[in-house]
Design goal:
Blueprint (H helix, E strand, L loop, with lengths): L1 H11 L8 H28 L11 H22 L7 H21 L6 H19 L7 H20 L5 H22 L1
Helix pairs in contact: 1-2, 1-4, 1-5, 2-3, 3-4, 4-5, 4-7, 5-6, 5-7
Length: 189
Amino acid sequence: MPTLVFYTILFHLGNSSNLTDKGRWTVVSLIFVTTCLVPVLTVVMFRITKVIKDLHMMERRDRYMPFVFISLFYLVVSFMIKDQEWMTPAMNITFLAITTVVIATNGITFKWKISAHAAGIAGWLGFILAYKHAFQSTNTLFWPLIVAVALTGLISWARLYLNAHKPAEILGGLLLGFFISYGSIALFL
């Protein structure tokens, strides 16, 4: 989801950065590697070393170690990119909000199996709606909004269909992701 969020910022918000197209793609690639590829490889490593039973992590207990590692990794990445010259205030606030959603979701997982998938997709939707208001005259967010709404429904349905979560866990993830993401932009940008 962070990759989609940064793609949205860099390619659908006018005046969101002074980067060239190549620089924008470099940032999107950096976000993909640090927030998707590394966490996926971490989960696979935990599976190979039998720290977790399977990649689905159906039991809440299996989520602890990977989620703690991923939370720590997001904190490190947040610290490393915050002072980069290419990071705008919108990107800084956005990445801190993403990190907050990840840490909150992971913290809640110790007591309740909230849906991280729902939190992620609803976070993207929340950012899009907040950006729509914050960058009213310089955005092209119609199609990202349509895609985000469709994916929010599809991912929520898929998690229920796969019996990965109960409806309350999906709703909890949706509310957490949406309100932290939307609120961070609405309050701090």
